[in-house]
């Protein structure tokens, strides 16, 4: 990664901010529902919180890569911990969190996307899959109506393992976000075997995405 602050760093930080926003909304849901008392303070105390402000004002320009990696770890840890804590207290809370994630996707959904590759690029600008050098997503095939990619490794699993959680919860939440994000533009998403994901144009208004 470049030693100078550039577009790729802003692109990555947008992803970090998105995952932090998802966690904060889950924590707000927890406060409303009362699943785990004082969970936000417990999460902040254990992992810290993402600082507010413009990236240029926050980042350590002498250690850009290290600073960003630290923030990736921070938001990964926070999400894994708060979701696992909630589910340990109330297993049925997963339905509420999935609905929240899908609604967040609908809120952030782009307008006027006509082709599947553009839909993927818009989606990829939010989802945090490690550092760019991790090359987590590998494109397999594409045309105007579909886009197929492979998730080559699960970089999230270690964070969930450290808190005794199940990384499948992360993937269910993100899949719901994908559904909400893509549906307004007329696309659906499907998870295939072997960690393959496909975005495809809906054949009719009545076609829904296949859940992971």
Can you characterise this structure?
It is a single chain. The protein is α+β, with helices and mostly antiparallel strands. 53% of the residues lie in helices and 11% in strands. It has eight helices and four strands, in the order ααααααββααββ. It has helices at residues 7-33, 39-47, 55-58, 64-89, 93-108, 116-124, 157-162, 167-182; strands at residues 137-142, 146-151, 187-192, 196-201. Strands 1-2-4-3 form a four-stranded antiparallel beta sheet. Helix 1 (7-33) runs parallel beside helix 4, helix 1 (7-33) packs across helix 5 and helix 5 runs parallel beside helix 8 (167-182). The longest helix is centred in the N-terminal third of the chain and has 27 residues, at 7-33.
User: What characterizes the major β-sheet?
Assistant: 4 strands, antiparallel
State the order of secondary-structure elements, H for helix, E for strand: HHHHHHEEHHEE
Overall geometry: globular
- Give the uncertain stretches in residue-range form: 205-212
Q: Give the percentage of residues in beta strands.
A: 5-15%
Q: Average the pLDDT over all residues and give the rounded result.
A: 92
| Radius of gyration over C-alpha positions, nearest whole angstrom | 17 Å
Number of β-strand runs:
4
Number of helices: 8
Helix content: 40-55%
Distance between the termini: 33 Å
